Amino acid sequence: MQKRVNLIVTGAVQGVGFRMFIDRKANELKLVGWVRNRFDGTVEIEAQGPENAIEELLPQAQRGPSRSMVTAIRKEEKEPDSTLERFNIIM
């Protein structure tokens, strides 16, 4: 069963390789979607794939790369989007 989530990650998550870390993990899990920095200093992740892969991504996002410090993650479940084809870093 496909699942899609939108995550807003708060903390020291910009300028520390967080987007590249999530991109690598999402591709390892064969997820589709994207990750981007937001103007308010948070990082937004849109990820879609098998439910177990989504559940594996969540603790990775909580941990982040070694130079990051995640203080909170807001999660919103969404309807699957058939137009998503791969996982990308949005600049």
Task: Give a quick precis of the structure.
It comes from Pelodictyon phaeoclathratiforme (strain DSM 5477 / BU-1). This protein is α+β, with helices and mostly antiparallel strands and 91 residues long.
Description:
This protein is of the alpha+beta class. The protein has one domain (2-90): 2-Layer Sandwich (Alpha-Beta Plaits), CATH 3.30.70.100. Helix content is 26%, strand content 43%. The chain is built from two helices and five strands, in the order E-H-E-E-H-E-E. It has helices at 18-28, 51-63, and strands at residues 2-12, 32-37, 43-50, 69-78, 87-90. A five-stranded mixed beta sheet has the order 4-1-3-2-5, with helices on one face. A hairpin with a 5-residue loop joins strand 2 (32-37) and strand 3 (43-50). Keywords: Hydrolase.
What's the structural blueprint in terms of helices and strands?
Layout: E1 2-12, H1 18-28, E2 32-37, E3 43-50, H2 51-63, E4 69-78, E5 87-90
Parallel strand pairs: 2-5
Antiparallel strand pairs: 1-3, 1-4, 2-3
CATH class: Alpha Beta
* Count of discrete alpha- or pi-helical segments spanning 4 or more residues: 2
Radius of gyration: 12 Å
Form type: globular
Distance between the termini: 30 Å
Domain count: the total is: 1
Considering the chains and any ligands shown, give keywords for the structure.
single chain, 91 residues, 2 helices, Acylphosphatase-like_dom_sf
